[in-house]
Amino acid sequence: MHTNYYFLRQLAPALTRQLAGYRVVTCFSQEKDELVIGLTDGAQEFWLKAHLAAAGPMLALPESFHRARQNSVDLLPELLGQVVESVAAWPHDRVLQFTFRSGATLLYKLYSTRPNAVFRASADAPAELFHQRYTADADLQPPLPATEPAELPANPLKAYPSLGDLGLAYLRTQDYDTAPLDAKWQLVQKVVAELEQPSAFYIIRLDGRTRLSLLTAGEVELMLPASDPIGALRRFVPMLLNRRAYEAELRQVRQALEKRADEAATIAQHACRRLHSLENTVGYRQTADLIMAHLSQIPAGAAQVEVVDFYQDNQPRIIKLKPAETPQRTAQNLYRKAKNQQLETRELSARAERRETEALWCLERLEELEALPAGELRTLRQWRKQHGLDPAAVAKAVQELPFKVFEDSGFTILVGRNAQNNDLLTQRYAHKDDLWLHAKDVTGSHVVIRHRAGHSVPEPVLERAAQLAAWYSRRKNDSLCPVTYTPKKFVRKPKGAIAGQVVVERENVLLVVPANPFERNGG
Length: 523
Hints:
Elements: H1 5-19, E1 23-29, E2 34-40, E3 45-51, E4 58-60, E5 73-74, E6 84-89, E7 95-100, E8 105-109, E9 116-120, E10 128-129, H2 164-173, H3 181-196, E11 200-206, E12 209-213, E13 219-225, H4 229-279, H5 284-293, E14 304-309, E15 315-320, H6 327-371, H7 377-386, H8 392-400, E16 404-408, E17 411-415, H9 419-429, E18 435-439, E19 447-449, H10 459-471, E20 481-487, E21 491-492, E22 503-504, E23 508-512
Antiparallel strand pairs: 1-2, 1-5, 2-3, 3-4, 6-7, 7-8, 8-9, 9-10, 11-12, 11-13, 14-15, 16-17, 17-19, 18-19, 18-20, 20-23, 21-22
């Protein structure tokens, strides 16, 4: 309500008393949608800082302001030297008008959409617009005086459109919705009288938002004297900005944790389903044992054979064969697959346990988040940093690095885009203590997990990076992919080697299922 007409009509005379005779000495902008004006009477200074963004305009009156040395541009040169005569609020509108002794005017159009500032050096001079795209504002004029309607509208609120949502919220606490029409008119007129002569200003919380109100709607947090609208605005704006930042960061970290918990639980569930499937189907080893036990019964070139399955209570079973392959070779291939299947089973079991642990960790952090002191931005940021949930470093990496960038548990994972980009990543960007990964024995992307001082790479992060290395390689469609990983200091590029080619002096191997990083149900 700090840009509502009823507050502006209280603010305007207070600004006139404060600023009459003050001279404009500076006018500039150093942020998008920001207009800063500095005034002085020779002994004291006064600052007006308008944020004229379509997401919500704001007029602040900071007691002091320090202009930045860079990224600052002077504006409205003809405004400099102008001496304030008066400040007025346009009737039933959200426009604050500064009139200067020379006849120049400056309008602050504080509409919730398309806000603007309009300056005229004289009554017949062309308008200078802060937002030049809103060309219609050059013809902005005060509304005509209201006339008594021939017939009162059936809805009293239409007669007072400046009440806004806070006025309506307050009326509803007075049983406005169920009142008869005559009572509704009386309630509205009573509220208008309170707005025109407020007993105090209130900083309130309503529907999760911090507001400056002339009425006791919502939860009242602070009551300020009605005689000092400038002081009320100076108390309200810093509180609002701090809470907006807090609420935005709180929402961001909550959504990130919920998403991460959901993804971890989904991956764990997927791994458990796959594990159950492997444990409850006939394994490769059993099939190979049956083939070897019945070699004498298998004719050459047979496409299938029926055997007695001694693993399933001697039930008959048909085993499909490859006519061009000997039964011994078929059994040998099945034994090899069985070995890989054992590895996959161990990997799946470990993955399910890790992801379930990660999901539980996220849920515990969400509980801690709800218990943090409300509105304390510094405490929230310290908590985020403590748990590796601060996105600042990751956002900077995404903006600056020419690689695919992923983030997991506070660790940054970089993925090369092609052979030349792999060289750039490994030879120029990777630090000797970073962890380097690559799909074993095939072409693919180089992957680097950025080192964090004092932190070892957790197993879920290593697994995620290995899955990325597998996915961005020739093995992306394999059911299981071995991935080499080692500290970057053990990776070197031989002289004369082609782009992307390196030699690994020491290596460890991790077996993973290639996972599309853009699918949530990947393993």
